Amino acid sequence: MNEYDPIDLLFGGMEKLGPGGDEYTLDVLRGLHEKKFETIVDAGSGTGRQTITLARELGSVVHAVDSHWPFLDDLRRRASEAGVGHLVVTHRMDMVEIPRVFRDIDLLWSEGAAYNIGFGNALRTWAPAMKPGGSIVVSEMTLLMEDAPGGVREYLDYVYPAIKTIERNLAEADSAGLRAVDTYTLPRESWVEDYYDVLGPRAEKLIDHPDSSVREMAAETIREIEVFKSSGHSYGYVFYVFERVV
Ligand SMILES: C[S@@+](CC[C@H](N)C(=O)[O-])C[C@H]1O[C@@H](n2cnc3c(N)ncnc32)[C@H](O)[C@@H]1O
After folding, report:
1. Gap from CA of 160 to ligand 1 centroid (Å)
2. What is the pLDDT of residues 153-187, one digit of tens each?
3. How far is CA 81 from CA 52, 75, 85, 86, in A?
4. What is the per-residue pLDDT for 1?
5. For the CA atoms of 96, 100, 102, 107, what is the dihedral angle to 10 degrees?
6. Tens of pLDDT along 100-154?
7. Run of H or E including 100
8. How far is CA 221 from CA 184, 196, 215, 242, in A?
9. Closest ligand 1 atom number to CA of residue 17
């Protein structure tokens, strides 16, 4: 671990790098119409909580794509420990490159990562790499109420100005040639258990770190968690299930 890398210090070794959980991944996966998938890609896999869940449940190879190699190292170790090392192939690459590397994808999964290249852009980029009828499942931070409390709205405008309502995200998918099948809003406890309840204490400990970039990221994390607590149900994480139009 690099003692001055804010990402390593805050997120290193964490199983969950965003809101979610195995039970929600499985709920959404088991609700898909199609049950057999040949080519499966997990975009922005991180340390691979959901990659391992997908591999274990489907008994098929899952290609984990992430740009941060320490997360992929961690994923390989975790997958071996979970007995699915032979079902996980890691690719250190940018997720915008997915159509260059993969063709005829049956299932493209992405939890809490598409926002890095923009939700609509991610869908438009990935759709041509999908097999007709193939499924794209993406979780995305989403505005659940138009009239979020003042401080919350200001915070969202600052950290994620591109945040949209479910309706507007569905319109993005439509323009990418994807048919919306379902949406599923994650419960608030999925943000807290094994995520904010690990990240919060870590951030508190790093607030006086000698490196300014670490102090800044720790302060931003503490602010993020405070805003979440005061946000009611004004924003949340939503799973979107799409199919490429045949
Ligand atoms: C919030 S984490 C989510 C990780 C994991 N899906 C989870 O829910 O625990 C976002 C992940 O996207 C990766 N990432 C960010 N930008 C990327 C890009 N352009 N291409 C590939 N991976 C990227 C990060 O390294 C990180 O692992």
Report:
1. 16
2. 999 999 999 999 999 999 999 999 999 999 999 99
3. 10, 10, 8, 11
4. 65
5. 30
6. 999 999 999 999 999 999 999 999 999 999 999 999 999 999 999 988 888 899 9
7. helix 98-101
8. 25, 9, 10, 31
9. 9
Ligand 1 pocket: which of 10, 65, 68 to mutate (most atoms <8 Å of CB)? 68
Atom of ligand 1 nearest to the CA of 95: 20
**Do the beta carbons of residue 95 and residue 117 sit within 8 Å?**
yes
Under 8 Å between Cβ of 164 and 143: yes
Query: For 237, phi and psi rounded to 5 degrees?
Result: -100, 130
44 Cα to the center of ligand 1, angstroms: 4
Q: Among residues 223, 227, 224, 221, which one has the least CA distance to residue 6?
A: 221
Q: What pTM was estimated for this model as a whole? A: 0.95
Q: Which two tokens stand for residue 74?
A: 């961690």
Model confidence over 28-55: pLDDT tens digits?
A: 999 999 888 999 999 999 999 999 999 9
Residues touching ligand 1 (Cβ under 6 Å) are 16-18, 20, 44-46, 49-50, 65-68, 71, 94-95, 111-113, 116-117
- pLDDT of 99 higher than 70: yes
Instruction: Kindly tell me the burial class for residue 54, based on how many C-beta atoms sit within 10 Å of its own C-beta (0-12, 13-18, 19 or more).
Output: buried
pLDDT at 148: 85
Q: Cα separation of 98 and 141, whole Å?
A: 22
